[in-house]
Amino acid sequence: MYDAIVVGARCAGSPTAMLLARKGYNVLLVDKSTFPSDIMSTHYIHPPGVEFMRSWGVLDALKATGLPRIKEITMTLGDTTFSPPRPPGADGEMEAYCPRRIILDKLLVDFASEAGAEVREGFSVQELTFDGDRVTGLRGKAKGGAEVTEEARIVIGADGMHSTVAKALKPREYDTQPSLSFGYYAYWSGVPLNGAELYMMEDGGVLAFPTHHDQACIAVGGPIENFQEFRKDIEAGYFKVLDTTPTLAQRVRGGKQEERFIGTADQPNFFRAPFGEGWALVGDAGYHRDFVTGLGITDAFRDAGLLSEAIDEGFSGQRPLGEAMAAYEAKRNEIAKPLYDLTLQLVSGDPPTPEQFMAFGAAMASMMPEAQQVAGA
């Protein structure tokens, strides 16, 4: 019997498994994917997320993959270009990264394994097991293998916004909003960038940032009501939005597209109750928001720290597990809700203002002490 089974081994699941294993717990980490493998992503790791990686000992390993550091972000709204406040890194300068997920996720899985978690890749969860209303484990199987049943004191869903664990449990959702926007991106070589560049217009936006392999990820997006027309010809729609930023568009047209377009309009906004008898949710499985503010990875890291601390408090007898888990939900919401509300404002249909972006930057700066505390720095 395991202390914890974590379902999903990407940016929420692997750190949760790693942190619990480092505390001495017997952890099983499973994922239907094998690693390295890619996944659609906003890529961006805000400075608080960088602090989590630094305190976990992961940051140097990520830097060693050749990932460029982002020291500056500029935002253009119409004719106004500015740099919102961003918290400094350890050396006093802003520090953010936009890694390829095929590299980041493999790195996180390896750190979980090195911490002592048992990792099963290519493992599909068939169903959860119960004793009355209490989750006791799961049934699943590896590709080509026999179905097995595993038991644990807690099963943790870290398997994204369409979480198999959440679907089985049907937790209460609150503060929900439907998808309000869509976005598509592609990787380009030969496109020089000045850090990360964000352009916002009334009917769309463009985000450009450096990533692995000396490439740039160039993303475009717009309101959900434009999605059906956009998807009729994705390449044409992509360049129609991109051409609203002439200087960047010129640089992109001078580069080379290295991979296909990737995108979605499936961006629901919600909070889910993240715990119950024998189960918990973390990352996008428990809380999801529009991609425009690039919060997904940073939120996943934060919640992994909060959840692992709550489980340890309960399992070690520092306080009742239910009390610790309620505190996890409360702290998650306290930090996430202001940023969630700002995200919804930015995609609500009204043109964003410099003041909104300045408020977002200030909110991120206010998270730094939280990041350092939660991460144990």
What does this structure look like?
This protein is of the alpha+beta class and 377 residues long. 36% of the residues lie in helices and 28% in strands. The protein contains 11 helices and 19 strands. The protein has helices spanning 13-22, 47-56, 59-63, 101-115, 164-169, 227-232, 234-242, 246-253, 296-315, 321-346, 354-375; strands at 2-7, 27-31, 73-77, 80-82, 118-121, 123-131, 134-142, 148-157, 173-177, 181-189, 196-201, 204-211, 215-223, 256-257, 262-264, 269-272, 275-276, 279-281, 287-288. Strands 1, 2, 5, 6, 7, 8, 17 and 18 form an 8-stranded mixed β-sheet that branches. Strands 3, 4, 10, 11, 12, 13, 14 and 15 form an 8-stranded mixed β-sheet that branches. Helix 2 packs across helix 9 (296-315), helix 9 (296-315) runs antiparallel to helix 10 and helix 10 runs antiparallel to helix 11 (354-375). The longest helix is centred in the last third of the chain and has 26 residues, at 321-346. It is globular. The protein starts with a strand and ends with a helix.
Layout of helices and strands, plus pairs?
Elements: E1 2-7, H1 13-22, E2 27-31, H2 47-56, H3 59-63, E3 73-77, E4 80-82, H4 101-115, E5 118-121, E6 123-131, E7 134-142, E8 148-157, H5 164-169, E9 173-177, E10 181-189, E11 196-201, E12 204-211, E13 215-223, H6 227-232, H7 234-242, H8 246-253, E14 256-257, E15 262-264, E16 269-272, E17 275-276, E18 279-281, E19 287-288, H9 296-315, H10 321-346, H11 354-375
Parallel strand pairs: 1-2, 1-8, 2-5, 3-11, 8-18
Antiparallel strand pairs: 3-4, 6-7, 7-8, 9-16, 10-13, 10-14, 10-15, 11-12, 12-13, 16-19, 17-18
